[in-house]
TrEMBL record:
SUPFAM superfamilies reported for this sequence: alpha/beta-Hydrolases (SSF53474)
Bilayer-spanning residue ranges: none
Organism taxonomic ancestry: Bacteria, Bacillati, Actinomycetota, Actinomycetes, Bifidobacteriales
Species annotation: Alloscardovia macacae
Protein name as it appears in the record: GPI inositol-deacylase PGAP1-like alpha/beta domain-containing protein
Domain (GPI inositol-deacylase PGAP1-like alpha/beta): residue spans on this chain: 293-410
């Protein structure tokens, strides 16, 4: 089954207030593209008819292929008609793509949707708070009915429907559980129980051990950092990658790549740790075993205060990145955070010091678990992908998602996020280019250390094992 993603970029820039002329221009481009397609079809038909003729008649007029009919054989006429048809169709595709970029870059789809659905969202929020059980059952019934009628039904597809409504419902449910504290307040109340559960199941002894380097290439761009994250996610569970870059002047910068939740019994990247990481207070977040593991690996790698660090994480890995970036009780300089499918909207990241690039999709559920959209402010950019079962229309040019399943699934795997970011790169977004430049400048230099750490939990009495980084750590 072919799935497609169409990206929208949300950043701190103000929307253009008078967009009527730009909308008209986009529609004019689409109309011209349709005219060119009709001409291309006519020339293609001419080529077909010419190839069928048994006489010396000609299907294309003289001005099309530039030679005299008397001197041109029938095959030459057909060939020129075919070439003209292909050329016209390529021009039509270019105009459609240009119109698509113009509309999507202006956020018109999401802006119009927000205007028409605002009152429905307010009604849903009230209903979710006053009647949480009934509202939850109603949302489940609607999602189930839509999924069953899709022809590609699956349980994952059921959970991936109506992300906006899920987000509102979770926010109000969190308010009820925490007396107005939202999802972070509810997570704070549940954190202690989650820690006790994790201690019984996994133990509280954390081991962070150097292991043979993961062969990740230099992350010189945001796109490459996401590709590296996808590679890391497919390797042995509980593995952290740390790369050091050395500039010509001898200074260093670092990229720490963090995996998502794996659910393995001996891994600190388990399900209970997510609750700790989404809690309201820094103290509660700091107790998460997975965050302890990342900070231990950073310390062992030799990252020094003042050296710029980029944290790149998928799912729970992105929450860890946001938690460390918003924390005050560590010596590191977090210059850039890159997340894929991570609910981090409520983490108090100081974007005057740390740039944030978030990639989300609308069918993944996970990025909505904090009950809030990412903030739109300076140096915080969110790329959000709309996942569709097929190409929506001839006027849109989305990007195909590789390795998608035949039935509906949560669009939380890295293949969805990397495809969404590729699609966003096609948009003329100065904000996205600024984030690319910031990340590229951070990783400028030679990759001279490619480190990896295996993180494990056990029930031994030792609180935490530390290990010295091997001397031979080149890529």
């Amino acid at each position: 089954m072919s799935l497609y993603t169409s990206a929208e970029v949300f950043a701190s820039s103000t929307l253009i207030e008078n967009t009527d002329d730009l909308i008209s221009s986009a529609h004019l481009l689409w109309n011209h593209a349709d005219e060119l397609s009709r001409c291309a079809h006519a020339y293609a038909q001419s080529a077909f008819f010419a190839s069928q003729q048994m006489s010396s008649s000609y299907a294309c007029p003289e001005h099309i292929y530039g030679i005299s009919p008397a001197a041109a054989p029938l095959s030459e006429a057909a060939r020129h008609c075919e070439q003209t048809a292909l050329l016209l169709e390529s021009y039509a595709a270019y105009l459609r793509d240009l119109a698509d970029k113009l509309m999507r870059a202006l956020h018109l789809y999401s802006h119009a949707e927000a205007q028409t659905s605002r009152w429905m969202q307010s009604l849903l929020a009230t209903s979710s708070y006053v009647f949480p059980v009934q509202t939850g059952l109603g949302l489940a019934a609607v999602s189930a009915a839509e999924e069953l009628s899709s022809g590609k039904a699956s349980l994952a597809g059921f959970f991936g429907r109506h992300p906006r409504e899920q987000q509102i419902y979770l926010d109000q449910l969190g308010n009820r559980l925490s007396n107005g504290g939202g999802v972070p307040g509810a997570a704070e109340r549940l954190a202690k129980g989650a820690e006790e559960l994790a201690d019984v199941w996994q133990g509280n002894s954390l081991t962070v051990t150097p292991m043979p380097a993961v062969p990740l290439p230099a992350a010189s761009t945001l796109s490459q950092s996401l590709t590296n994250l996808e590679t890391l996610s497919s390797l042995k569970h509980g593995t952290i990658s740390i790369q050091r870059y050395t500039r010509a002047n001898g200074t260093h910068s670092w990229v720490v790549t963090i995996p998502g939740t794996d659910g393995q019994k001996d891994s600190p990247f388990g399900w209970p740790q997510n609750v700790d990481l989404m809690a309201r207070s820094e103290r509660a977040r700091a107790t998460a075993d997975s965050q302890r593991a990342v900070l231990s690996a950073m310390q062992q790698a030799g990252i020094q205060p003042g050296e710029p660090v980029a944290l790149v994480g998928h799912s729970q890995g992105g929450i860890i990145a946001a938690s460390i970036a918003s924390a005050t009780q560590h010596p590191y300089t977090i210059s850039h955070v890159v997340t894929a499918g991570s609910p981090i909207a409520r983490h108090p990241i100081d974007t005057s010091k740390t740039w944030v690039t978030s990639v989300e999709t609308d069918r993944e559920l996970v990025s909505s678990l904090d009950g809030k959209d990412n903030p739109i402010r300076e140096h915080w950019l969110t790329v959000r992908g709309r996942i569709r079962d097929s190409q929506p229309s001839a006027s849109l040019q989305p990007t195909r998602v590789p390795n998608a399943k035949d039935t509906h699934e949560l669009s939380h795997a890295m293949n969805y996020h990397t495809a969404t970011f590729r699609d966003a790169k096609r948009l003329p977004s100065p904000e996205l280019e600024a984030h690319e430049t910031h990340f590229s400048e951070l990783t400028e230099g030679r990759l001279d250390r490619n480190l990896a750490y295996e993180c494990r939990m056990n029930k031994e009495p030792d609180s935490e094992h530390t290990h010295r980084t091997p001397e031979n750590t080149g890529p």
